[in-house]
Amino acid sequence: MQPTLTLIPTLSVNPHQISFYNQVCWHPYKPIYDKPVKDSKERINASDNFLKSKRVAAGNVSKIAKRKLGRAVDYLLLMADDKYINKQITGRAFNFKVAFITLTLPSKQVHSDNEIKRKCLNSFLIEIERYHKVKRYVWRAELQKNGNIHFHILIDKFVHWNDIRNRWNRIINKLGYVDRYREKMKEFYRSGFAVREDLLKNWPIEKQRANYKANKLTDYHNPNSTDIHSLKKIRNIKYYLIKYMSKNEIESKSVESGVADERIQQGRVWSASQSLLKLKGCQVPVDSEIEKEIIAVVEKSGCKTFDSEYYSVFIISLQEVLSFGGEKLFKYFSDYLLDVFDYSIQKPMLL
């Protein structure tokens, strides 16, 4: 029996975008096409060219990766519920949706980027999953001006800043970064407080003095290597976060440029928790009812539309879909969230 090709009109529904395309289906199986076999000489030349290739990621995020990272952030923000936390000092409650964590190295980096990602970042992510029940996160690695690698992590849980700092400092000191920081600071302040002139632009004297006193109390065992901010107004920060976490370190750089003071980041520059890493969105087969509904929603909303020969994209939020009569589309998507993420979305949505 010869395989036959069928095109199934499909909608891919995501939090702020709906795509229309024809899904390719083969029946009963996809045909296998024989490729011409290269002779041994061609294979050797191809392998040799690959090994000598000077292509590098250079800390950059490709266009495809930007879309994936942006989608992961979009889903994380969508499923981040309002949380109310009591401040320990004042007793007052405050609310937030997500937390934005920055992890740095307190002393000069002496290990490869990949080793730090494998031994430090990975350990940190495992621990916040295990001990703080963080289910969804997105991380991005960047190089600081001093050449050290640092990480930005978006999570959907509240974790106290002191827990974050203690955990990260303990983990990175397995590679000696806190001990080296302690040695350097004790040497710098051996005669008492001294001003760090190189940091005055962004770190005034009064803050340097306060940091000196705080560090002295811990004998320099607990450096300020982390930062955490609670983010509340998702509407205002969504596109900022996606743009910030997907920006490129070096837009165009040749490894033969001869610039000695700029290094290139090694390894993966971003990733996410497993459920956010391979998102495909809610796949909806287009029948006559769905077709009628999506046409009405697009016409009533006046949303931005991008058309190509093979697909169409509608930039529209699920809140707008629901507002303009897209009940069936919303139901498909809410079932998808429940099935894939075990997350129940409520109406009306406040995105």
User: Number of helical segments?
Assistant: 11
Helix content class: 25-40%
- Number of strand segments: 12
Order of helices and strands: EEHHEEEHEEHHHEHEHEHEEHH
How many structural domains are formed by the residues? 2
Shape: elongated
Mean pLDDT: 84
At the fold tier of CATH, the topology name of the largest domain is Alpha-Beta Plaits
Label the CATH architecture of the largest domain: 2-Layer Sandwich
> What's the quaternary structure here?
single chain
* Main sheet specs: 5 strands, antiparallel
CATH domain class name of the largest domain: Alpha Beta
List the topology elements.
Layout: E1 4-14, E2 17-27, H1 40-51, H2 63-78, E3 83-86, E4 93-96, E5 98-103, H3 113-132, E6 137-143, E7 149-155, H4 161-172, H5 177-188, H6 205-217, E8 226-231, H7 234-245, E9 270-272, H8 274-277, E10 282-285, H9 288-301, E11 304-307, E12 311-315, H10 318-323, H11 327-341
Antiparallel strand pairs: 1-2, 1-10, 2-12, 3-4, 5-7, 5-8, 6-7, 6-9, 11-12
Helix pairs in contact: 2-7, 3-4
